[in-house]
Amino acid sequence: MGLDARVAIVTGASRGVGKGIALELARQGATVVVVGRSETETPDFPGTIHQTVQEIEALGGRALAVKADITDDAVVKSLVARVWAELGRIDILVNNAIGGVVPGEKKFWERPLEEWDAVTGVGLRAHYVASHTAIPYMLRQETGGLIANISSGGAVADVPMFPVAYGVVKAGLDRLAQALASQLRDTKVAVVSLWPGMVATERMKKLAEARGIDLSRAEDPALTGKAIAWLYENAPTQYSGQRLVVAALAREKGFG
Question: pTM here?
C-alpha cells in the first residue's frame, strides 16, 4: 500500500473528520498516532481515542492512542519527540483538532469572550506549536513530510451556526500553510490547507436531525483522509501553501 512504513500524527482523532482521516490513512498502510483528550464517551461527544485505535486494528492497521492536551506546549513537544523516538519517523502531521465551538444563534457580542481562547487555543495556536515542533524532525528525513491543516470554507464565508472565532481560526490555518510553505520552499516538507465540505460526522448528524439539515450530499469523513494520502504520494511540494477543496481535488484526481 502507498503509505506502508509511514507514520502519521492526527490530532482530534476521537471522532469526526479526524477519526475519518485516521482510519483512512491506516487503511492505506500508515501507522497512525491517534491524538485526543477523550477516553470516555458522553452523549455530546461520542467516540474515544481508544475506539479509533480499535477500529484501525480491526481493519488490520497499526495505531497508537495518545491522550494529550495539545494546548500545553510541553505536551505537544513531548508527544512529537515520543513518536520520533518510538516509531523512528514523522511523515504526516494532520492539524485537525478544534475545541470550544458551540453552535448557536447568538451574535458575536452576545457570546462570552472566553470563547475566543477556547476556540483558538486548540484550533490555531496548538497547530502552530505542533508544526513548529514537527518540522525539524521532518527535515531530517530524506523523504521530507506533509503537514495538512484542516480548514474549511468558513475561512472566507460566514457559518451562521458557529462563532466568529471559528472563521478566524480557519483563515489562520490557511495563512499558516501559505507562510510555512514559503519558508520550506527549498525542502521536501510541504504544508497544505484542506477544505472539507459538509461532512457527515457524528456531530453534524445530530445537528441535522435537530435542524432538518439535508445530509444526502455530505462527504464521508474518510474523504479528507484520501486527499491527504493522495497528496503525500503525489509530490506534495507542488501543492505546498495552497488551500485545496477536498471534493474538487477528489473529482479531479479520481480518488473520491
Answer: 0.95
DSSP conformation letters of the chain: -TTTT-EEEEES-SSHHHHHHHHHHHHTT-EEEEEES-SS--SSS---HHHHHHHHHHTT-EEEEEE--TTSHHHHHHHHHHHHHHHS---EEEE---------S--GGGS-THHHHHHHIIIIIHHHHHHHHHHHHHHHSTT-EEEEEE--GGGTS--TTS-HHHHHHHHHHHHHHHHHHHHTTTSSEEEEEEE--SB--HHHHHHHHHHT---TTPBPTHHHHHHHHHHHHS-GGGGTT-EEEHHHHHHHHT--
Number of domains in the chain: 1
Of the candidates 128, 137, 166, 232, the residue annotated as catalytic is 166
CATH number of the domain to which 131 belongs: 3.40.50.720
**Which domain covers residue 38, as residue numbers?**
7-253
Q: Is residue 223 assigned to a domain?
A: yes
Whether 137 is catalytic: no
84-109: pLDDT as tens digits: 999 999 999 999 999 988 888 899 99
- Tens of pLDDT along 2-30? 899 999 999 999 999 999 999 999 999 99
